[in-house]
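Entry for D-glutamic acid complex. Fields follow.
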Amino acid sequence: MVAVFIFIISWTFVPSSKLMTMNSTGPIGVFDSGYGGLTVLKEIRNRLPQYDYLYLGDNARSPYGNRSFDVVYEYTLEAVKELFSRGCPLIILACNTASAKALRTIQQNDLPLLAPENRVLGVIRPSTEVIGALTKTGHVGVLATEGTVRSESYAIELHKFSPDTRVVQQACPMWVPLIETGSHMTDAGKVFIKADVDTLLRQDPKIDVIVLGCTHYPLIGDYIQSVVPEGIRVIAQGPIVAEKLETYLKAHPELESRCLKNSKTHFLTSENTEVFNRNAQGFLGIEIYSEHVHF
Ligand code: DGL
């Protein structure tokens, strides 16, 4: 009950601007530094196929994981403005790094000026609301980017819902570059991935739940599951975020009514559109004709 209340508060934030059209209707925006947010978009589309979506991958400036707070905030705010300018009443930051480093400032400082009637939501809070209930040992491992690990967001948020849970983190700085370049399933890629998973487990052998705290990681989720001991659950955020989004939309009919429902998805990338189309098609299994956006 308390968790539901806190969730509603956290996904209820604040205002935005006069800059955009008041109470515009449009697609639900989904943003990531690159391809990772597609793992969230896929689950959201499966669960809520009636809505329109506008995906924005800032592939040209990916990865965000090792960048400073200021740079991640600046890039994320640019993306949010772009999606607002295209009519999105609601944006999901389907990127843990952006959720950890930029979301709060955008919600508190920028949204009231930009578009108070719109909303921007992240992926860390909804995930931490449910993760504590999944562990039997009370030991949870988090694999994430350097930025997300340093922010301590997972430990801070998880302890709000499950104060006794022990959280152990491992930064995996090579993983996003491997995935963005399509090298993640090469022999060399697998060596890097396994090394980080092993380092996490060496820190705490009692871990029985591993959270993929970066939206790129479900793309290597099967491989990670195959290299951990039996009994360890590897958890992707996509299905959790999709379920929480459905709950959120039901609780906010005024916002829900502004989300277009033609079952259409459009894609934007700051990189080469042909490369994006090819890779994103591989991840989503649908034809993609992306549009270039310049930052
Ligand atoms: N998908 C982003 C995340 O969830 C990747 C960050 C990056 O670009 O390094 O953190």
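NOTE: The chain has 14 helices and ten strands.
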